[in-house]
């Protein structure tokens, strides 16, 4: 259920509605659009309508029941698309955003070199894993705190915003001191305690779709974060498990228009984990922008052959710069802006 406030609703009227909701045990979440405020109310809907008399309260325009299991995430709750501003990146806005960088942080030189080249090619957010959830316990597990220090340092030097994956409560607490955005990986999409903890933090969060998650399960995971108080959720489709073995996962591009219809949250595509192959990243990136994605999350390593993690799917900086030039043209064909690319013509 959402309570849509009138355009001229005063602060006092908004807080009175809030008070009525919370005093009856409902969760009340203020969602601020450009010109009006709606209050997402989570609780027993029939009681809300009949007993609270919200529709008669001053400043209230209408009360809209939401039938979907996800409420705050739903486009019914918030017709306008959400834009999440992180430093220079307006995620979900008119411009396509590029998030790029290595799968794992390996050294200061590696991250700096990737960051400088990615920035020149239009990236505004630098990615780098400090805690790596690996299938094998014998694989490289990440540099943890040392890696976060590197990411923060390079972020400062290049002016890029930063994102890293968190895998549990402790890593969330630690990473929150170093990065601008936290990421919940595919393997943790239904780690409900972690979702709630991220919900209580103030950091924007990239929520990746689980390997075998339906779109509804994914949106319910986003609802956990929002219901816990954090409205800055960015969805990221990174491929799902199917019977196909020629690609690492199967990129579900139909998720993009569906997500746009069902929710107001931004949606990114990660073509690197979706395909597992650097050869396929370019085509899928172009298709993602054409399909309406708000941005891309792409693994870029200064020397993919030497990468400690996900080398085969990582682009080298030249390939990323070349791709970025092509993406600029696709973006313009679908009326989206694109960041400035300063890399020389390749
Ligand atoms: C990653 O972004 O490095 C990662 C591990 O992604 P995913 O959770 O999609 O596998
Ligand atoms: Mn990776």
TrEMBL record:
Residues 1-68 form the DAHP synthase ferredoxin-like domain. Residues 84-333 form the DAHP synthetase I/KDSA domain. This is 3-deoxy-D-arabinoheptulosonate-7-phosphate synthase. It comes from the Bacteria. It comes from Heliophilum fasciatum. Keywords: Transferase. GO terms for biological process: aromatic amino acid family biosynthetic process. InterPro entries: Aldolase_TIM (IPR013785), Class-I_DAHP_synthase (IPR052899), DAHP1/KDSA (IPR006218), DAHP_snth_FXD (IPR041071), DAHP_syn_2 (IPR006268). GO terms for molecular function: aldehyde-lyase activity; transferase activity. Pfam families: DAHP_snth_FXD (PF18152), DAHP_synth_1 (PF00793).
């Amino acid at each position: 259920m959402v309570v849509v406030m009138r355009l001229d609703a005063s602060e006092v009227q908004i807080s009175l509605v809030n008070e009525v909701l919370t005093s009856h045990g409902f969760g009340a979440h203020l969602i601020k659009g450009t010109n009006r405020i709606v209050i997402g109310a989570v609780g027993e809907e029939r009681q809300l309508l009949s007993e609270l008399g919200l529709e008669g309260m001053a400043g209230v325009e209408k009360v809209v029941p939401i039938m979907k299991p996800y409420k705050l995430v739903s486009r019914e709750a918030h017709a306008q698309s959400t834009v999440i501003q992180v430093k220079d990146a307006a995620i979900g806005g008119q411009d396509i955003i590029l998030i790029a960088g290595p799968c794992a942080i390996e050294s200061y030189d590696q991250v700096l070199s990737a960051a400088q080249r990615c920035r020149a090619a239009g990236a505004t957010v630098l990615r780098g894993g400090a805690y790596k959830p690996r299938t094998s316990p014998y694989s490289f597990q990440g540099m943890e705190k040392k890696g976060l220090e590197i990411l923060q340092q390079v972020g400062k030097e290049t002016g890029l915003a930063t994102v890293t994956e968190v895998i549990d409560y402790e890593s969330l607490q630690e990473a929150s001191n170093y990065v601008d955005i936290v990421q919940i990986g595919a393997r943790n999409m239904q780690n409900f305690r972690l979702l709630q903890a991220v919900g209580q933090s103030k950091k924007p969060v990239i929520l990746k779709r689980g390997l075998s998650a339906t779109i509804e399960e994914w949106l319910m995971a986003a609802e956990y974060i929002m219901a816990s108080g954090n409205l800055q959720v960015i969805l990221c489709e990174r491929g799902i498990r199917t019977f196909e073995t020629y690609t690492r996962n199967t990129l579900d591009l139909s998720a993009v228009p569906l997500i746009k219809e069902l929710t107001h949250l931004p949606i990114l595509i990660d073509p690197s984990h979706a395909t597992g192959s650097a050869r396929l990243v370019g085509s899928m990136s172009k298709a993602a922008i054409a399909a309406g994605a708000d941005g891309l999350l792409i693994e870029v390593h200064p020397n993919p052959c030497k990468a400690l993690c996900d080398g085969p799917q990582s682009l080298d900086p030249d390939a990323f710069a070349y791709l970025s030039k092509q993406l600029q043209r696709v973006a313009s064909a679908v009326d989206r802006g694109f960041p400035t690319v300063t890399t020389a013509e390749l």
